[in-house]
Design goal:
Number of domains: 2
Structural class: mainly alpha
Largest sheet: 3 strands, antiparallel
CATH class of the largest domain: Mainly Alpha
Oligomer: single chain
Strand content: under 5%
Number of strands: 3
CATH architecture of the largest domain: Orthogonal Bundle
């Protein structure tokens, strides 16, 4: 393929081989190492799915205990990171959890002496990846609590996945139903092909940088509003609509103005987003919780918006995406809205680290070309 024929945004261009997973956009299916990610979300724990993505196979009971022990040993933060968290949490007029996480992970990499992946032994790269995966929830929850004048909560070795995350955020014993809902969300969002942040992580890793730096690069991309930051904005649209009678007027006005409907459409799927279907199921299970009336409203918003999109954008088959139902699930599980996207990062950091480890096995730096369109050389 010549430079002149490469599509904008590298859409449809295979830039690398991977054994981690794949997204089949026309079939509405995605998997982790050959196993349906949606089925894993229904049947596996977050730690099981993380072990599968990072190590290549689902653990048995012994393997699960070993993997959890490895994570537990790496959750506590070094003094250097604890020292910077209050400043990061209170910086700026708006809380920027992902910006704080980027700085904290950079500090963690320095404090722990992360070495470049280039030339490092695979076991050392994996150890650094597990450190980043384990420390990320601790950092994010601490930033949230410090921002609100609360002391960070120490990780508990007896809690895992969704329950561990809710405990770190709230400091309270996690409710089983809420923890199970968050668990399924976390499993479903570990990896999703060569999205922008994952590709960024691999570009950084191809240069041989350390694991923390590659994840920080991914986080910078993930923070963009066109990528990881949509669950809260999709929920804001539902709030703005307010009642089923207002759906059509709201959506028609947006479409007539050429505005984007948050929570609808996807860059890869040309049919229903399987993650949205899963999370709609989860949301229905939470509808008896306080605020659960939003589930019925969200279902009406989905059905009418998809119908109106088909009317205004015929032939494009624009459907609801994962962000729409993710916001509803996280709201009913008790996660603050400012922590919706950080919750996504708690999961996706596993996928980023898996891709960093896979890329580190290659000796080729990712170095594409660009079409020059400026003035002719003089």
């Amino acid at each position: 393929m010549t430079i002149d024929t490469v599509p904008a945004g590298l859409r449809g261009v295979a830039v690398s081989d991977t054994a981690i997973g794949d997204v089949l956009g026309t079939e509405g299916y995605y998997h982790y190492r050959g196993r349906s990610a949606v089925e894993l979300a229904r049947t596996a724990t977050f730690d099981d799915a993380a072990a599968l993505v990072l190590d290549g196979e689902l653990p048995d009971d012994v393997g699960r205990a070993r993997f959890r022990a490895e994570l537990a040993d790496r959750r506590e933060l070094p003094a250097a990171v604890h020292a910077v968290l209050p400043t990061l949490a209170t910086a700026g007029t708006e809380f920027a959890a992902l910006a704080g996480l980027r700085a904290a992970l950079s500090t963690l990499g320095a404090a722990d002496g992360f070495a470049p992946t280039w030339g490092a032994a695979p076991r050392d790269r994996r150890a650094d990846a597990l450190r980043v995966v384990a420390a990320t929830p601790t950092i994010l929850a601490a930033l949230h609590r410090l921002r609100h004048g609360l002391e960070p909560v120490a990780p508990r070795d007896d809690l895992h996945g969704g329950a561990a995350w809710l405990h770190l955020l709230t400091g309270s014993e996690p409710e089983p139903q809420a923890a199970a809902a968050v668990e399924r969300y976390l499993v479903a969002t570990i990896d999703h092909g060569f999205n922008a942040s994952t590709f960024t992580a691999r570009v950084a890793a191809s240069a041989g940088t350390d694991v923390a730096s590659a994840v920080v690069a991914a986080l910078g991309t993930f923070a963009g509003p066109l990528h990881g930051g949509a669950p809260d904005r999709a929920l804001e649209a539902v709030d703005e609509i307010g009642s089923p009678e207002r759906v059509d007027d709201y959506v028609r006005a947006k479409l007539a103005a050429g505005d984007r409907i948050m929570g609808f459409g996807h860059a890869v799927y040309r049919t229903a987003d399987p993650r949205a279907g899963l999370l709609r199921e989860v949301a229905r299970e939470l509808r008896d919780r306080p605020g659960g009336e939003i589930v019925g409203l969200a279902e009406t918003v989905q059905e009418r918006t998809e119908a109106l999109l088909a009317e205004y954008r015929p032939g494009r088959d624009l459907r609801v995406n994962v962000e729409f139902w993710a916001g509803v699930v996280m709201l009913l599980a008790g996660i603050p809205r400012e922590m919706f996207t950080p919750t996504f990062a708690v999961s996706r950091v596993v996928g980023w680290c898996a891709h960093v480890l896979e890329q580190a096995g290659s000796s080729t730096i990712i170095r594409p070309s660009a079409r020059y369109v400026g003035p002719s050389p003089s």
